[in-house]
Amino acid sequence: xxxxxxxxxxxxxxEGGREWVMELLEELFTSxxxxxxxxxxxxxxxxxxxxxxxxxxxxxxxxxxxxxIFHKAQTVRDCASGSMGEGGAWRRYxxxxxxxxxxxxxxxxxxxxxxxxxxxxxxxxxxxxSLPDEKCTFCMAACESGTHLFKDCPTLLCxxxxxxxxxxxxxxxxxxxSSWTLDMLDILSVDQCDFFFMGLWAVWxxxxxxxxxxxxxxxxxxxxxxxxxxxxxxxxxxxxxxKKKQAPMKWQCSPxxxxxxxxxxxxxxxxxxxxxxVVVRDDVGMGIAALARPFLHAHSVLNMEAEACRAGLLLxxxxxxxxxxxxxxxxxxxxxxxxxxxxxxxxxxxxxxCNSTYVARDSGYMSPRCKx
Length: 372
Description:
Blueprint: E1 13-14, E2 19-20, H1 22-28, H2 31-38, H3 63-81, H4 89-98, H5 104-115, H6 121-126, H7 146-152, H8 157-161, H9 177-187, H10 190-213, H11 219-236, E3 259-268, E4 273-281, E5 287-295, H12 301-319, E6 324-327, H13 331-339
């Protein structure tokens, strides 16, 4: 586009309404970039430019936040390289395993499976153990490696297809058992991972019965047995849920002669939009004023909570109300207002001087308190 070489960010902002000039944004940037830029809230004042570290909630760089980003990048590299170390991406996988709602023996089995140390026929032969053959216990065709036994064996395909997960591991492009297993952990939900672990263990359990007891393989019965075994374990070993008890709170009228402004914000992450609402009541709870406004571009719940609080403040100022208090249910926003610390994040876009107190969402109302 001609004539944009010397364009500045300020040229994209309507100084009168302090809003982004959408026509220019749509002409200069892609639709995704437009949505991202338009979601950046603007101050109503011409404040000085400053550097913001967007990896930190407050927008301020610290050694701690820098180390966190470095560690996160290292995790991505470890995952891409398939490193079997204890750190990086593997730390997350081990946490998923050890916190799974399955019997301890299943967790130990999965640890051996991922480490590649299960005594499959191929592994035993590599350890110089003499065996009659190396063929798979189920199909009696290919060599019984971990990858073949749990993923590629055609005899076991019906177990995975007709099980609760409806998997077709044969078509998965992974060449190793560990890479397939970790891919499944990335795809499956927590509950699905529980059965995935149980299913792998059930296959191994059935394999051992066939080796030592010459049992016949019945895939549908194995599915039923694995599901029942998991359900029974989870029934008698429920996950501990810690729920913090909080005393119910009710909305209260403001002190005599003072107006109370309740503000709230909403955000839809799926479409990147939001909205705000403001309600004003007098000291006996009678409605005085109200407003609501949609935001076609937003980037977080806190962003909308901050916009709602600002709208409440501006309403009070424009109406000339001399004694008001504002309530919000956003504990993070209230803490930011009360802290007195510098906060350069995009979410807290105003620096008004006010004292704030937090009221729980259970009350149905909110709470920074600002007295003018």
